Amino acid sequence: MLDFRKLELNTTEPVYVQIVSFVKRQIFTGAAEKGESLPSRRELAAILKINPNTVQKAFRLMEEEKIIETPPHAVSVIHWDDTVFARLRRELTAGLVADFVAQAKENGLTLQTVTELLQEEWGDEV
């Protein structure tokens, strides 16, 4: 089961969005597995010390985004398919890459220079 105690809530975005983002990152990084159970809504509310309605809102959004399933009278489980995973990959990396490219351009770096620097920094894995 995912360790939601690792989720550090902030005051800059809605809590339900932070819960959804946490689960998405866990899926993307491989920390969450398909079929893995989530705590009940009440359990998660107690863990995070938040209103159960906030957790319900997060679960509903995750169901709409097809990253969890909640069968009738059963616990919610992590679930995704290749299309959903590809969407998560784009969602979680597009901003990072865009920010990096903007900063590189602002610093006057060329694509070739950036590529060389990336290869150098990446090391032997290239």
Automatic annotation (TrEMBL):
This is GntR family transcriptional regulator. SUPFAM superfamilies: Winged helix' DNA-binding domain (SSF46785). Keywords: DNA-binding, Transcription, Transcription regulation. The keyword Signal does not apply. InterPro entries: Tscrpt_reg_HTH_GntR (IPR000524), WH-like_DNA-bd_sf (IPR036388), WH_DNA-bd_sf (IPR036390). GO terms for molecular function: DNA binding; DNA-binding transcription factor activity. Residues 13-81 form the HTH gntR-type domain. The keyword Transcription applies.
